[in-house]
Amino acid sequence: MRITISGYSTALFSTWYLLEELGILMDAGDGLTSALLQKSRKINYVFISHADRDHLTGLVQLNQLNARDGFPVICYPRDSKSFPAMADFLQRFDPHTSGIQWRAVGPGDEIWVRDDVVVVPIRNEHVTTDHHIIRSLSYKVMQVKQKVKPELATLPPATLKEIIMEKGKESTTMEVRTNLVGYSGDTPVKDLQRWDQSGILIHEATFLASEGDVKVVAHKNKHSKLEEVMEMVSHISVEQLILGHFSSRYSAEQIDHAIKDLCNKYAINIPVFRLLPGLTVKDILSGHPVNK
């Protein structure tokens, strides 16, 4: 399945990604509608990773332009109180947006965006909370297909038809899920296997520096460092990697140099794309990978 991904992602200022063919928006930072123009009307589902303002302030204009009965469906971490407050504000500020669905979600939920595509929320480590409290999420966009059970795959079609007539089609098939797109949101790398078998992985890489070079502030939320992301990718199966959310302290040259060095260090040969600070990129995957 081809997915056209466009986006903008600069730490502190704004992050959003449009998965065009699926009508999915990942996060909704400022400026998304002015960048997408009419394409913003393709958005049916919005998945917000957390309540930092650079990930949600674009909702006001998106909803003003795009609200209709039942859509968009805005999914957000279930224990974040910012979104009910925003929903209440929008209903008074733009009454015509009352048809929007606001949906609190967490691990274990499934949001079906099409008959064959489901989005699965995953708890991440950006916001430090008790384990039962969900204020920050990553998401997997998964394609769902029904395939003949392996033990029946070699049977003649006539025999399969007999089994279906006798026991029903569900007795001959099994559900197979493929991770089309993984979206990290903001989070440090904690689980090396979280994104294994991803077709496309969109991952934040806020800092280029090593652990000793990054000043840690206790009350601040946690982010990824580029090297930990690249090391993780070297241990799992990912077909294409999109890196974003770089700090604006870094130049394009610094970012590209660091990515190339780490691709060499960890023998990463898959296509690696990046969103440089301050730049909107249309159809990211049609561009030239940094490491090729």
Describe the structure.
The protein has 292 residues and is of the alpha/beta class. The chain has one domain (5-286): 4-Layer Sandwich (Metallo-beta-lactamase, Chain A), CATH 3.60.15. It has six helices and 13 strands. A seven-stranded mixed β-sheet has the order 7-8-9-10-11-12-13, with helices on one face. Strands 1-2-3-4-5-6 form a six-stranded mixed β-sheet, with helices on one face. A hairpin with a 3-residue loop joins β1 (5-10) and β2. α5 runs parallel beside α6. It starts with a strand and ends in an 18-residue tail after the last strand. The model has no long low-confidence stretch (mean pLDDT 92).
Keywords:
single chain; 292 residues; alpha/beta; Metallo-beta-lactamase, Chain A; 7-stranded mixed beta sheet; 6-stranded mixed beta sheet; 6 helices; globular
Q: In summary, what is this structure?
A:
With 292 residues, the protein is α/β, with parallel strands linked by helices. It has helices at 32-36, 59-66, 82-93, 157-167, 226-234, 252-265, and strands at residues 5-10, 14-19, 24-28, 45-47, 73-77, 101-105, 111-114, 117-123, 137-148, 173-183, 198-204, 238-244, 272-274.
Helix fraction bin? 10-25%
- What is the arithmetic mean of pLDDT? 92
How much of the residues is beta strand, in percent?
Answer: 25-35%
Order of adjacent strands in the largest pleated sheet: 7-8-9-10-11-12-13
CATH topology: Metallo-beta-lactamase, Chain A
Order of helices and strands: EEEHEHEHEEEEHEEHEHE
According to CATH, the homologous superfamily is Ribonuclease Z/Hydroxyacylglutathione hydrolase-like
What's the CATH architecture? Answer: 4-Layer Sandwich
